[in-house]
Amino acid sequence: MNFLRKKLDEIKRPFTKGEKWEKFAPAINAFDTFLFVPNHTTQKGSHIRDAVDLKRTMVTVIIALLPALFYGIYNTGFQYYSQTGSDFTFLDAFMHGSLKIAPMIIVSYVVGLTIEFAFAIYRGHEVNEGYLVTGMLVPMIMPVDIPLWMVAVSVAFAVVIAKEAFGGTGMNILNPALTARAFAFFAYPTYMSGDKVWVSEASMIDGISGETILGSLAASQKVSYSMLDMFSGSIPGSIAETSTLWILVGAFILIVTGVGSWRIMTGGILGASLMGLLFNLWGANSLMSFSWINHLIVGGFAFGIVFMATDPVSAAQTQKGKWIYGILVGVFCIMIRVFNPAYPEGVMLAILLMNVFAPTIDHYVYNSNVVKRKKRWESAQIKTA
Amino acid sequence: MSKDISFRRGADLNLNGKAEKKINENSKPNSFAIQPNDFFSLFPKLIVREGEEVSKGSPIFYDKKNSSINFVSPVSGIVSKIIRVAKRKIESIIIENDGDRELSHNIPENLNRDNIIELLTASGCWPFIRQRPYNIIANPKDTPKIILISCFTSAPLDVDFDFVLKNNEDDFQSGINILNKLIDSQITLTVASSSDSFFKNIKNVDLVQVSGPHPSANPSVQIQKISPINMGEKVWIIRPEDVVNIGLFFKTGVYQAQRTVAIAGSSLKIPQYFKTKIGANIAPMIKIAGLRSKAQVRCINGDVLSGSITTKDGHIGFYNNLISVIPEGNKYRMFGWLPFVDNSIHSLSRTSFSWLFPKKEYDIDTNLNGEERAIVVTGEMEKVFPMDIYPMQLLKVCMTGNIEKMEAFGIYEVVPEDFALIDYANTSKIEAQEIISDAIELMIKEAG
User: Is the Cβ of B402 closer than 8 Å to some Cβ of chain A?
Assistant: First the structure.
């Protein structure tokens, strides 16, 4: 370890203050701090600091994502082989999925991190770890057959327009990963919806019925999957969104570590259940009469509410705000699903919509505190007068 | 009938190196310092020169903004050095102890508010009284709505005032009796509800029992529950040992600078209490307590969360009963950022297993454990901030310097030390205390 440390210090020398590559210090620091927690000590304020930092927090989210990702990889192969009707083992399915998905993850990280590094050097601040999570999320919420260049363009759009244009990590209004998906969804609709994109290589092979459950319902077709299929995730859909079971494992990790907000998740489930129940009572069409419990376990709702709506930067930031925000995400998600046949899945738009409103929700929560303080002052004035 | 208040939010940090409950009176420091930096936003006007002889209680400098407030020498001796830093700002005035000269004041039989204030300001006792908002020395012309004395501590390694002042109960009571004449109502005394404190027997006070984790002993959080500060209102606070000093002054007529400090922290062999004077040199005490190893240590005037850096040869601060000595953390940790790695480092976050061992005493060093980042994680500041204020929002408006918004979000009710746990706990390593301190300075300049 000492040897490595010495070597690193040697490599870093031209990047130190006053040396010729000083500008590029954020780039080399990002690699260095990946290997070592730096030897920086407190200079002002509290002399001691908690062991937690942004890297640790972000990596915890990635750990929480892994179960859903691994299942998504397996399911990609499973859908392909079971639809084509050939014999396969677990390993075959997993390999098929890996070959499809690994390139997407690599493209997402390479494109996104390049832009992040460039902005860090340009602005002269350290590279923030936020993209570690975004870069993982983007491929996980795409259909498996989307061309890699589309992944690259979507990522570039999301990082530059949704994040860096607002000032970088911590300043963005919209969730960057969802912005990438929304961009792809509206720019390349034929690759993002329909019945030929959800199963690997479905467009090449006739006879694959690769419709998602919500898609079938929107087209008033019958759904042939059981509730267990929907919950375990052996259904077509975006790569990692299908398995509510493994998403729940991730949710458990997020809630136990305190990294993800249980208030938003609970609020979302409450909102969606309530809306689903109301529509069940109404029951005018097949989407409305689709059981409210099934609404919670199909499509991207579970993934969205656990991993996307809880993004602390774009969500509401106050406790009360988180409840309101979560509930409304749930309500709007089901409402969009049911009312708008052009968008069989509503969770993406629901979260983006609430991202926009989150600061407004917080504003009113903050304002109640401000008003309380003002009233207290006014009554004190009356007393002394 | 005593009133009870309790706090749910906050955090007690259980650190290694608590002071043993014995008082050592043999440290015999011979250099003492008065450090203008101890007084927030003070402009000192020097009266003495280097080499001048001073008595115990003779004025060293006064406050430029309020020339009646004297700052006096804690001992008799010679002004050996006046240390200045950039822009000739005075950092400290060092006095070498020598002789027993005393400056004595006549204490009249019948004390009223005016002559108490006059005696306090002239004698050098007045700086013991600080005002909220801002935590600056109180203005003798104001009348506060309450005077609050927090008689317990909750910060890590901090002293036990019950133990420190066990022989001073009468002096404390006489100090209270004097101070009671400064306001229309009674002094408010806060004690830990769990303790069997002698403070509970003090008469002529409004007793408030407080329970809850740190920062429950901070005056700000107590004031907000007892009588919150509105714009334009003043609350005065005094530290318990300074009440004793005021009591002793009115008994003897001579300024008393009694100070019982704990020298505590994991770098010390035998952390313990010392009875000495305000401004005493800490070197002899650290020598007696003994350093565990030759490794670099940090000496802190105050607690590890909100104290200020000093050296091994530094001097005790004016408002301070604690010197913390902890190891410097200037070392690298390979892959230390991974969750559930290095669990021996304390963390309030559950991304480390250390939360499973709340009873364990942690050794803690000064490593930042990461680097400063944009604010991302929300809700963690609120967890350690037991006031009816949105801390993150207040920090944000303080950063923008918008005075109206700072007022609206509660700047009058807080001081930097209330944000110490936020410094500690926040993932993005934001310097919250510095932001609040800068904001208060701006408020003093712009709003007065």
Answer: no
Domain presence at residue B345: no
pLDDT band at residue B2 under the 50/70/90 scheme: low
> Has residue B332 been placed in a domain?
no
> Of B232, B252, B272, which residue is a domain's last?
B252
**CB of A200 closer than 8 Å to CB of A161:** no
Phi and psi torsions of B91, nearest 5°: -90, -45
Residue B296's pLDDT is: 93
CA distances from B107 to B104, B121, B140, B171, B288 (A): 9, 13, 19, 16, 39
Residues B271/B18, Cβ–Cβ less than 8 Å: yes
pLDDT tens digits, A196-236: 788 888 777 766 667 888 888 887 788 888 889 999 999 99
**B336-354, pLDDT tens digit by residue?**
899 998 888 999 999 999 8
Nearest by CB to residue B408, choosing from A42, A171, A370, is A370
Tell me if B184 is assigned to some domain.
yes
Between A251 and A10, where is the model more confident? A251
Answer with the one of B220, B252, B284 that is the final residue of a domain: B252
Residue of higher predicted confidence among B438 and B355 = B438
Q: Which residues 307-366 of B are in CB contact (within 8 Å) with A?
A: 307, 309, 324, 326, 328-339, 342, 345-352, 354, 364-366
Enumerate the residues of chain A whose CB falls inside 8 A of the CB of residue B367: 37, 39-42, 49
For chain A, the domains span: 2-35, 56-363
The C-alpha atoms of residue B22 and residue B164 are separated, in whole angstroms, by 9
Collapsing DSSP to helix, strand or coil, A93 comes out as helix
Residue of B nearest to A315 (CA): B378
Residues B4 and B211: their CA atoms lie apart, in Å, by: 8
Longest dimension (CA), chain A: 88
Hey, which residues 208-237 in chain B have their CB within 8 Å of chain A? 228, 230-231, 233
| Residue range(s) defining the domain that contains residue B106 | 3-252
Convert the pLDDT of each residue in A130-139 to its tens digit: 999 999 999 9
Count of beta carbons in the 10 Å neighbourhood of residue B83? 12
The count of structural domains within chain B is: 2
CA gap A35, A6 in Å, rounded: 13
pLDDT digit string, tens, across residues A43-76: 989 999 999 999 999 999 999 999 999 999 999 9
pLDDT computed for residue A207 by the predictor: 66
Q: For residue B90, what is the enclosing H or E element?
A: strand B90-97
Residue with tokens 């106050």: A318
Strand partners of residue B82: B93
CATH architecture of the domain A56-363 equals: Orthogonal Bundle (1.10)
pTM of the model: 0.94
DSSP-derived secondary structure letter, A304: I
